[in-house]
Amino acid sequence: MKRAFWAAGLALCLIGAACRAKPEPAAAVRTPSPTARPALPTLGFIDESSQGTSMDGGVLRRRLFGEPTTLNAVLQSSAPEAQVLQYVQRNLFDFDARLELVPGLAEGLEISPDGLSYTITLRADAVWEDGRPVTSADAVFTIRKIVDPKIPANVFKPVFESFESVEALDGRRFQVRFSRPYAFRSMAFVLPLLPEHRFAGQNFLKSKQNRAPLANGPYRFVLWKTQESVELERNEKYPGPRGHFDRIVFRIVSDNTTAYRLLLEGELDEDQLDSGLKDRAARDPAFAACCRLLEFYNLDYNYVVLNNRSPLFADPRARRAVTMLLDRASIVRGLYKGSARIISGPWAPDSAAYEARVPPLPFDPAAAARLLDEAGWKDTDGDGVRDRDGRPFAFDLLVSAGSEIGRQIDEMLSAELARVGVTARIRTLEWAAFVEKIDAGDFEAASLAWSAVDPNPDPYFYWHSSQCSPNGLNNGCYASPEADRLMETARLETDPGRRKEVLARLHRLLRDDAPAVFVVNAAQKVALRRRIRGLTTSPLGLYGIWPGPLAWWAEPETGKAP
Amino acid sequence: MTAYILRRLFWAVPTLFGIAVIVFLLLHLAPGSPGAGGADSLRRASGKAAEQMRRQYGLDRPLPEQFAAWIGRVARLDLGESFADHRPVSERILEALPHTLALNGLALFFALALAIPLGVVAGGSPESAFDRASGAVLFAMYSMPTFWAALLLQTLFAVRLRWLPLYGTAADAAPAGLAGLGDRLAHLALPVTCLTYGTLAFVARLVRSGVAEARTADYVIAARARGASRGQALWRHALRNALLPVITLFGLLLPALLSGSVIIERIFAWPGLGRLYLDSILARDYPVILALSLLSAVVTLGATLLSDIAVAAVDPRVRDGAAG
Amino acid sequence: MLLPRRAHLPASARVALAVVVLLWLVAACSPLFTERSRSIRLDERLQPPSLEHPCGTDDLGRDLLARIVTATPISLVIGLVAAAVSLGVGFTVGAAAGYFGGAVDLALSRLIEVMLCFPVLFLLLALAAFLPPSPAMVIAAIGLTSWAGDARFARAEILKMKELDYTRAARAMGASTPRILLRHLLPNALPPLIVSAAFGVGWAILAEASLSFLGVGLPAPAVSWGGILSSSANWIEEAWWIALFPGLALFLTVSAYNLLAEGLRTVTTQGGRNA
Fold first, then answer.
1. Global model pTM greater than 0.95
2. Relative to the CA of A443, which of A332, A437, B177, B199 has its CA 20 to 30 Å away?
3. What is the pLDDT of residues C100-110, one digit of tens each?
4. Prediction ipTM score
């Protein structure tokens, strides 16, 4: 029924998980890290990994906010898919809670001196659940699928930009070559592998494997009930540390309020709360009795993307006016009770790229009205709506269904715009249709959430003019020669200090050009049943890190029927 | 009688054809098709969806050719492939069907089981206190928006009293055996109630007025004169007369229930056909939209045929009279 | 002839009529509340009903009463016009089928039968989702999907009237077809159709609310009762008033129209007996 706003963002970012940090596996050749480590979150960072003695057994009941569309790791495009697959299939490398790369299926990575050739060695004991070893042939198969133009592997395609070749050196080693260097290239190997032998002779897009993935991770796939649940059980063939839980049940619950109730009833063990539910939880004795609340800042943020190609938003003055009509301070106070921070550019304050010396544009309706006048938008026909060249300043402001915060932001913006003579019609679209419009660049304005799945601040794929939708991830098609130049410089610059300087200039430019309304970085609010232990929070949140949720365990539950 | 059935079947053929035409027109209203309004960008399919539309329906070919190709595939029970998850539409429908059957079957059962006695008792003594009270309640039920009723019932029974689950078909770790059945029934209680009351009010009012009218009809008075008790006269003779319009309308109750199902299944997150239809509308999943529209209309046509034949079997005037 | 002796309108229907008139008055005054309904006050979110906010506030601190009042004209106008469209289409199709008979009747009866086979909400959702959202389109969608019942009814009425003496007499005297339709059949078929129209208004208001509730109605900043109810589901635990009051307004309006329709039916059937 309803879908969480943050969830929408998770998926969006996964679609564009282009840029990943440089892998630094212990066994690999170390090169200087291009990214300064982001500051750890300021609000309640938690590391329980050394607390208590972990126990095995029981069932972990997690929530998916929406139905996965596939469980093919290469085709994944949204958060629910990533959350399930993390248990089932390991990546070559993974981020840990400190956002450093740790080995997964791979145990070694060598980079040629010219930075164009990457040689990866797989672990000798990596094995599929059917007993076959994970081989370099699987890696070659997977990478060839990713770069196949007919395969929509949108999560992985960007980092394989300028891909040249992949070949197996022997059963465990393979080499990937690129034609151009890229400072964040090694992030490409935060990469899952597919079992080549299971896809042989099948239509890749329609294979039965896509609804029943073969495991090489700690859990194996058991069951997928449409619109209800996905179930996993421990994969006894997994050579690494055993998963603590016997089973993992993902329940598909799109409505936040319902999920909250299920949490109290013990039908869910964890849930992300929106700020309304957080307020409720804080007052609810039933919540205090069963659950606890974690709050911490991650790298996620909300924004309203404007289509810079539209005649409405082609002029930066018009875009700046829209930003100045959103009362972000009031959003922080009223909707988030203070646990959110206004942002002035496309990064969260804890991101390495965020320049704190760029203050956000103020909320100033009078100045916004003047900017619109200057841009030529005046109410010439006296109908109460500004117009220019016979076109009224009226547009559809999209929001994905169930995004409560997105709707609230849209309503605030729409009300304020109405006061200065601009009509913004709020249109709710179902998630899939919403994403399709955004990806295709077929919209005028849309409320989105950004959710970082990696700490890389490279803005190239999202704001460079060469990456305009529908073929790229620059959804609103922001195009500025100066910004382009800064981004091109930044992505080749290996010195963190100089890079930071370039990004700071870019940040200032993006604030003033306002290709989108950057709203706030809100603290993530996670509710957990008290029995769940072993948590580690990270700027990427609770999931998407290793071991992350795989290290959770549960104290035996008392008082509740099995 | 056979002649009547054959005649009805014969006339169902053009209706069936009309249903197919309407559904086909629906497809052409759909975004991405050549006829779709271009002024509103949200109505257009963009990118992938537009491509899929062209591929699956051959939208660039002439209309009659498209229609023939589509009808041909439907006749072979090939409903196409869902845009959302690339599974056959029939598979998705079969997955949702049992949930809707359970919900609507129970709703229909309760509606009839409660409405008929209510209607008979109220109609048996018009203007009595019971008739007036039940009339007022039924009228309120008749005018009550289902989604409002659902929200209020949820607030009362799921949020305040916590007697019943808020939504869903079953608890996550549903217990086995009898307890599991109880859990299922608890999940059914609110959605079935919400889906029942509208039909109940409609049928009860119909039965009541039928019985009230038949009360004074000759054959009921004759039955009483032959020594039937008042109850017998009402329940056996008046009711039989009052049930005819109910049977006639039976075919029409089906689409009404399905309409209600869309709203109820959304509120109670019930994974049935109504929810599938709404999700498909919102996700612009045309193959599913078309298949469900077609299916529901064809099933309704079937039910209407059956109820007409049933009425004709009971009432010879029908089969000798109207042309169909 | 049209509505014989107003005094026969039952008391309940007279109350309903008063409520309908009152609702239209509220709708006429609603522009006074537009600014208040738009005023977002995040520090007054989710306030329970009080003197200042008789129906409480919503999740953005807007006054719920002002929003309900602002939504009134949309509901009433869409309901009335959509019912008129539905009646117009239904009456035309039904009357044509009934009057001309033969092949016309066969074809139009098939069409009516086809329309009756679809769950109304299925067609309505498809139309509303596929047409650009404007009041006119919502009206068209409701009007074009719900006329089949009216048509069937009109056909039956005309068939009945055709057999009446005065029609035969008119025809015998050489009256032309349109003349018979307009002068004789229309006035006689009208009273039951007005009843049906009054029920139609209730149904159309409900249909508009359902569309908004399901998220395919008029987009914000337009306010609709169904739309407010739709968002109330998120606040069901902390703010019961968001679900209660807009629903109450909707229920009151639909009931008033339905009661009025019932009353008119009583009057017209009595009138029919008297005539």
1. no
2. A332
3. 888 999 999 99
4. 0.85
